[in-house]
Amino acid sequence: MKQQWYGDTCRVGMVGGGQLGRMFIQSAISFDVHVHALDPDPNAPCKDIAHSFTTGSLNDFDTLYAFGRDKHVLTVEIENVCIEAFEQLEKEGVRIFPQPRVLRIIRDKGIQKEFYKEHGIPTADFQLFNNSQGIIDVKLAVPFVQKLRTGGYDGRGVQLIKQETDFSKLFEAPSVVEQLIPFQKELSVIVARNEKGETKSFPAVECEFHPEANLVEFLFCPADINEDIETAAHELAKKVICALDMVGLLAVELFLTADGQLLVNEIAPRPHNSGHHTIECNITSQFEQHLRAVLGLPLGETQSVRAGAMINLLGAEGFEGPVRYEGMEKAMEMPGVHPHLYGKAFTKPFRKMGHVTITGTQIEEVKSTARTVSSIIVVKS
């Protein structure tokens, strides 16, 4: 008899207890799916809503193995985990999505880039280096982008080297160096795939990044692109997830170049910042879709039902301590404003504390409201 996916008979483990896990659990509750979370922070956002919560390291073999051994399905909200523990659990029959072999590819940006090259997936030209001296010795032409191969997240571990005087800032750890792409837009497509090989993707979104934090500041859907580019973006996202033979949810971040080509920038094997708007704007949210994919359920419909924008609520510069949201009530007086706070008690500069989705019938009106809301809400201490 097929394993039930609801109630006590199916124990789902979420490795990572941050805001992505929190929103995943919020969707899972509607399906009566019991999600158990593991996170090193005893006050992580998942703590109070998980079916059970365990405090512990995600990179310690014994901790992750002990957490996972009584689960039927394990999934992640972060790639930086002890893959060796996952591999052992998989051998013992625990279903893990995305699969450990997929995480090995994705968590190392160097292996990730080589995977694109091997499978004919268009991406920026790149070179791999073990240290900064190697970069200096080959006399690379500036400007270029340097990315740490492992450990980077939320804009950390990525830097633009504009001129030779910036060489003093080079990371010392193994890194990927990419040609600086003259792009016109940064896009993202989220695609899901279940064990049957069924795939569905969400409409492309357009991202605007914070100039200092290197984090998404605004997200807009529908993206301002033509139908041919929209179709090509979906086909490229599907090509990536099928080449990986991955089960779960995959965010595919893309550059639309000045000459109209699409290049894969990076991928994330989990719910993603560029899909938060789907909670209000799509038939199925990215979090519900992730749940459906990892539990082997039919994938949900992904069509947009309204235009949307998303703003990340980042901790303001110069403030660190107990969080306080200024201007929230004023912003909520505006139509179509939907705040999501992540339950983080303390703020610090550029920390993701929540997001706000703005919905409406016309994208230009939504964009205007989003920029107004962004100027009103300030995250302080």
Silhouette: globular
**What is the CATH architecture assignment of the largest domain?**
2-Layer Sandwich
Share of helical residues: 25-40%
Number of helices: 11
CATH topology call of the largest domain: D-amino Acid Aminotransferase, Chain A, domain 1
Instruction: Tell me the name of the CATH class of the largest domain.
Output: Alpha Beta
What is the number of strand segments?
Answer: 22
Q: What is the residue-mean pLDDT, rounded to a whole number?
A: 95
Please name the fourth-level CATH homologous superfamily of the largest domain: ATP-grasp fold, B domain
* Largest sheet properties: 9 strands, antiparallel
Number of structurally distinct domains: 3
Radius of gyration: 20 Å
Estimated share of beta-strand residues: 25-35%
**Structural class, judged by helices and strands?**
alpha+beta
Report the oligomer.
Answer: single chain
What's the N-to-C terminus distance?
Answer: 54 Å
Low-confidence regions? none
What labels would you give this structure?
381 residues, alpha+beta, Rossmann fold, Dna Ligase, domain 1, D-amino Acid Aminotransferase, Chain A, domain 1, 3 domains, nine-stranded antiparallel sheet, five-stranded parallel sheet
